[in-house]
Structures are given as C-alpha cells and as structure tokens.
C-alpha cells in the first residue's frame, strides 16, 4: 500500500492554526477550520508521523474522556512572503511566531511577457532547499483574486488581467499558495500578531499606491468580487487626470508618490529629473511648496478617510505604507481634513501610525499562510 497523502492546504492551515492560537484539541481545530473531526483526525495522523505536530497534555471535557491537545513541534517553521510591485519583487521568510527574516528584492518589469516565468523561477529557487520547513507561500500584490478561483489574479497597476498565478506557483514549488491584496495582507498580519484588539478596524496605506483594508468580526472584508478596499480609486475631487487603472480622478492621481512628484514638478519645487526622495529632502529643509504639497495630500486623505468612517464606523484607524516616513508633514492636513468632515463626537477616533521597513509588505504576505484557517471560515 502506498504512502498516505494529505491535503497540503489543510495541513498548512492546521499547523498555522495551532501555531498562532496555541495547543488545541482535534475537535476544536475542526470547528475552527470548518471541516469534520474525521478529516482533522486523518490529517493529524500524517502530521504526527512526520514530526510536525505532537500531543501535549489534555483538557477537561464536559463529559467522557479528556481531549488530547495538539501542539506544533518546537522547531522553526516558516512561510515565504512575496510582495509584487510594478518594478520589483521582495521575498522574506516569517516563522510561525511572527518573527521575520531579512528580505531579498529582485528587479522585475511586471509588464514583460516573460515576467511570470521569472517570478516562478525566482520563488522556486528560494524554496527549493527549504520545502521541509516551509508551510506555504503568501503572495501580496496591488490587485485582487477571483473569489471563485483565488489562484486567478487581476492587478491593473501591474498590467495583469485574470492571470492564473497561483497554479503556476503551486506547480513550480509543490507548496500551498495563498494570494491576496497587499493591504489585506497587512491587515491579516495585524490580526495575528498585532496588539490592536478592536473589532472593527480601518487600515490605510500611503506611498506608491493608496490602499485600505477593513476588518470586522475577525475577518478582512473582501467584497463580492474580491475588490473591497480599492480606496486609491475612489474620488474626492476632480483631478482631470487618468489613473494607472484607466479611470479618471482617482485619489491616487492626487496623493500617491508619483502624483506628489508630478505636482512638485508642475509648481517648480522639483526639476524634471528629480523624484520623491528629493521632494522629501526639500520638505525636511522647510521648502514652502514641498511642505504645502504634503499638507494638501494629508487634507485630501483625511476627507477621503472621513467618507469611510461614515460608511463603516471603525473603532480605530491605522496608517502605514512607504509614505509614513513623511507623516509629520501629512499629519496636520490629515487631521484638518478628517475633522472637517466628521461630527464632533467622532473626531476622537484613534489614529495610529504603523512603522515601516522595506520588508513589511513581504512579512504581511507570509502571514496569509498562517491565517489560512481564517480564510477558510469565510
């Protein structure tokens, strides 16, 4: 008789569930995963024999014999997080306790006809010698997955429409692959490892793009077609400019990094060859036009966030992304714009700024693997 095989996605989900929630019984795990106890028992047998799980004590039951608790073997297990942007890919490993390793970035043109081969080759090389420890691959991108087939992704910023990327990566690595919007991935990581225990949360990211993620009842809200949180493509005022998504007047045409650079060149603060780094330096040095741009961007963001507050009524707001390094120049305008559009009793909503590093996106992506049980319950 051949060796019994198990569903690799359910195996990763079970390990991720126990690793992030702590020891639990088979019946509790089945309930969390939304599968039958018999299914969990079958998967558990294989994981116990592989040394991935151990039985560690018991817990009292309401009647009958005490339940045996399952725990993750105390050796490090990882997920690989991959973040895609229009011009590069970052990969970083995160262990089941949320501890990240340094990331590695590769320059890529996401509109190249060979880019999918380049992505699968690079990720395949990364995991080839680590498959015994890697639970799966989490991939975050500025786009969304098809709810009917999460392997298929659409990302207008990357020039992609209905790309079967999950299947390509699974075939190249033999590992479970979880794909989600990049801001959703950060929200998932915050659910698993953050200290914000609010039930309804709003996460905003600023930088190359402008994004949002809404969390309620322990879940990230993805919408009917996977596109919830496309905050950067909402409109607060006419810009007359076409966005990378193909629409006009998107918020990103006003306050994204590229938009700020374009506007700074138009008002003479930047020369044609100068970019965002120079704009940051000018603002730090007190340049009035540069500081005015950040103030205006903050005001526009505050007005747009107020619209979400009226619709969603979150308990807290977190702001993160590459652009938070200049938040001290956004903040005053943000609070003015936000408070000008809220009733007085809502102006006290907490606003937290989440520190940022180059690897933060990839670390968030890796958390998608450990949070697979959450995705299964939706």
Question: Which structural traits does this protein have?
Answer:
5-stranded mixed beta sheet; globular; 22% strand; alpha/beta
Brief description of this entry?
This protein is α/β, with parallel strands linked by helices and 378 residues long. The protein has helices spanning 8-21, 26-33, 37-50, 115-127, 165-173, 182-193, 252-255, 257-266, 276-284, 288-312, 327-340, 360-370, 372-376; strands spanning 24-25, 53-59, 67-72, 78-84, 88-95, 104-107, 134-141, 144-146, 149-155, 160-164, 177-181, 201-205, 211-216, 219-220, 316-320, 351-353.
Can you describe this structure?
There is one protein chain. The chain is α/β, with parallel strands linked by helices. 39% of the residues lie in helices and 22% in strands. The chain contains 13 helices and 16 strands. The chain has helices spanning 8-21, 26-33, 37-50, 115-127, 165-173, 182-193, 252-255, 257-266, 276-284, 288-312, 327-340, 360-370, 372-376, and strands spanning 24-25, 53-59, 67-72, 78-84, 88-95, 104-107, 134-141, 144-146, 149-155, 160-164, 177-181, 201-205, 211-216, 219-220, 316-320, 351-353. The chain has a five-stranded mixed beta sheet with strand order 6-5-4-7-11. Strands 14-13-12-15-16 form a five-stranded mixed beta sheet, covered by helices on one side. Strands 1-3-2 form a three-stranded antiparallel beta sheet. Strand 5 (88-95) and strand 6 form a beta hairpin. Helix 4 packs parallel to helix 5 and helix 6 (182-193) packs across helix 12 (360-370). The longest helix has 25 residues, at 288-312. The relative contact order is 0.13.
